[in-house]
Amino acid sequence: MAASNNKNTAFPKLFIVSALLLLCCGLVFGLIGGLQYIIPGFWRNTLSFEKVRPLHVSSMVFWIIIALVGVVLSFLQQHGTRRNYSPFLLRAQLILLCLAVLLIFISYFRGLFGGREYWEFPPYISIFIIASWILFLVNVIASLITIKKQPVYIWMWLTGICFFLFTFLESYLWLIPYFNRHLVNDMTVQWKSYGSMVGSWNMIMYGSSIFLMDKISGSKTYSHSRIAFLLYFLGLFNLMFNWGHHLYTVPTHPYVHYIAYAVSMTELLILGRMILTWRQSLTAAQKFRHNIAYRFLLFGDVWILLTLVLALAMSIPAINVYTHGTYITVGHTMGATIGINTFLILGMAYNLLTDECREPNRKIIIAGLNLANIALFVFWISLIVAGVLKAAWQMNPERLPYAAMLDSVKPWLISFVVAGFVLTTGLLMIVLPLLKSYLSCYFTSHLFSLRSLNAKKQKRELSLE
Amino acid sequence: MSLIMKPFSDKHKAILFIVLAVSFFSYTVVLYVSPPVDRPLEHATAVLDGKALWQKYNCNACHQLYGLGGYLGPDLTNVYEKGPDYIKGFLVTGTNVMPDFHLNNEEIEHLISYFKYLNTTGSADPRSFKIYYDGRIEQ
Ligand code: HEM
Q: What is the DSSP letter of A336?
């Protein structure tokens, strides 16, 4: 698993660098959206919320997806398989994804929509994403020598990549009149695809974090073990069948609700396992605490626990009927995408971007990580409390006006936004130094290799003369 | 080595994977071919145009349908109960928060037809659910 930094390993890292830039953009859009929550009419005529929300959410979704592509391609090389099958495909893949993101930003700024939640852009842009994803799949499959006796992360990567492709295509079935015409079934299919899609990128991410743990601990026992595969199959089972928990209050088939309820409860097994193995986790934490990437994984674990408890509660229909349609959902989504996805992926990014370059100032990174975690906790609690107040309003037998609810949640939305500013500061304290140290290392080594190439050329020309 | 840390055979992995994948695709096909509420759409083109406008202006960024969407504005699943004129009032001028989309009369009519149809599909009011001790809910 030696990490050699050369032209081959540098290219996949450009995916991670691009993704980190998107994370920075997403944070800025998040803050603008937050201000619009607490200052009614803020930028209503220039960049109103129907533009800011998709700008924020798409930036964050692409931060996660594009970073994961870079992480998988880099780890795949370290896994000891062939080099990346085709550097040309790799380049085409990055160009297509960047082109898609650029077109998406332009269309949001200009108010051109036509898509749906999470993919609000005009549908034709998705062709670039699909094409890029197919190249990714081809590259990963072709880079593997065999599928036999592979560790669990290879299964997770392949499963995640295939399911993302399937669910992404499924989320566009509304373009076919048969699906578009049945309004309730259309919503069912839409949230079926989204539920599994989130599962698919989490599958890729958890696979990558298992790889990183193997790398840090220097042991591959876990990734071939029965328990690792059983947990993988449990995850796959949930990815396939738990999505109905988004739809408990939607009048779709009752069996969709029952299946989702039953399947979601199997995640109790994961919660149980986390509680049973906490002692082991603590020993590992002691052992690897000097490794910065490991610290990111550790905070990720804390957020997995918190998110799992909240998600399990929300998957019980009798509780969901209160929480659905409130800020608790936003708290859950951002708690997961920041606490789990962002921290774990930042850990992987840190490991990869520093493996052949100097580490940035560790003190700043650690301070940023601690600050971001404290702020995220306040951010999360504020949204949950605001959600509880909204739930009380929704359930109140007297129909109080919407404005009355807004008044009651206002202080909590203010603390959400203030915490959002601190969270942004913490995350930027990690991202900016990391980008700076990697990019300066990248450019110096590139310039150096260019210079030595020129020198060689000159020498050759001289000798020819 | 404890039992759970022993390796898993490729054959067992493949069998489990195939069983899950076949169940998933069967479930998917059943959902595709049997839509739950099959009420015929009245004035179908107006409703479908309304739905397209809902997407074109990204109303969903601020509003929810059946609780799904952005949270700056209220849920609109059953807003038709307040009457077409009430809705028109909001669509013509916008509000302090909601932008004025400069919709023409035809667009406003189509959005109203969409809300009218949505209202017939069910109620998004959480108070309308019966809650059972086993955790289920029913409308
Ligand atoms: C890494 C950091 C972040 C990630 C990954 C992230 C991700 C997300 C996601 C996935 C959503 C969609 C939520 C849903 O559909 O339920 C969302 C919504 C939102 N986020 Fe963030 N977010 C981040 C940081 C922030 C920050 C710092 C703020 C500033 C206060 C913020 C403000 C918002 C707002 C206002 C919404 C819209 C809520 C709504 O009306 O639905 N986010 N974010």
A: I
Return the closest-CA partner of residue A420 out of A371, A351, A386, A350.
A371
| Residue A5: per-residue pLDDT | 45
Query: Distance between CA A353 and CA A439 in Å, rounded?
Result: 9
Distance CA A433, CA A267 (A): 37
Res A147: pLDDT: 82
| Structural domain span for residue B119 | 44-129
In contact, A385 and A347? CB cutoff 8 Å:
no
Distances (CA, A) of A85 to A25, A82, A108, A142: 32, 7, 35, 6
d(CA A333, ligand 1 centre) in Å: 8
Tell me, yes or no, whether B6 lies in a domain: no
- The yes-or-no verdict on residue A195 having pLDDT over 90 is yes
Please give the mean pLDDT across all residues of chain A.
93
Q: CB-based contacts of B74: which residues, under 8 Å, 6+ apart?
A: A402, B63, B64
Query: How many residues does the structure list for chain A?
Result: 465
- Is the CB of B119 inside 8 Å of chain A's CB atoms? no
Asked whether residue B108 is domain-assigned, the answer is yes
Q: What is the pLDDT of residue A2?
A: 35
**How confident is residue A220, by pLDDT bands cut at 50, 70 and 90?**
confident
Distance CA A338, CA A413 (A): 18
How far apart CA A420 and CA A417 sit, in angstroms, is 5
**Domain CATH code at residue B87:** 1.10.760.10
A361 C-alpha vs ligand 1 centroid, how far in Å? 29
Share of chain B above pLDDT 70, in %: 96
Above 0.90 for ipTM, yes or no?
yes
Residue B13 lies in a domain: no
Angle in degrees, CA B31, B37, B40, rounded to 5: 120
The answer to whether residue B58 sits within a structural domain is: yes
Query: Consecutive sets of 10 residues in chain B, 139 residues long: mean pLDDT of each?
Result: 76 95 98 81 86 97 97 97 97 94 97 96 95 93
pLDDT computed for residue A10 by the predictor: 86
pLDDT tens for each residue of A122-170: 999 999 999 999 999 999 998 887 888 899 999 999 999 999 999 999 9
CA dihedral (B32, A254, A335, A174) in degrees, to 10, reads 20
| Cβ–Cβ < 8 Å for A375, A426 | yes
Number of folded domains that form chain B = 1
CA–CA separation, A39 and A300 (whole Å): 32
CB atoms within 10 A of CB B15: 11
Q: Which two tokens stand for residue A452?
A: 């030595």
Question: Rounded to whole angstroms, what are the CA distances from A15 to A20, A22, B16?
Answer: 9, 11, 34
Q: Which amino acid belongs to residue B134?
A: D
A172 C-alpha vs ligand 1 centroid, how far in Å? 23
Among partner residues B24, B36, B66, which is closest to A249 by beta-carbon distance?
A: B66
* pTM, entire model: 0.95
pLDDT at A3: 37
Test the B interface: residue of A158, A185, A320, A399 with most B CBs within 10 Å: A185
Q: Name all residues whose Cβ lies below 6 A of ligand 1.
A: A 27, 30-31, 33-34, 37, 53, 56-57, 60, 329-330, 333-334, 337-338, 342, 417, 420, 423-424; B 70-72
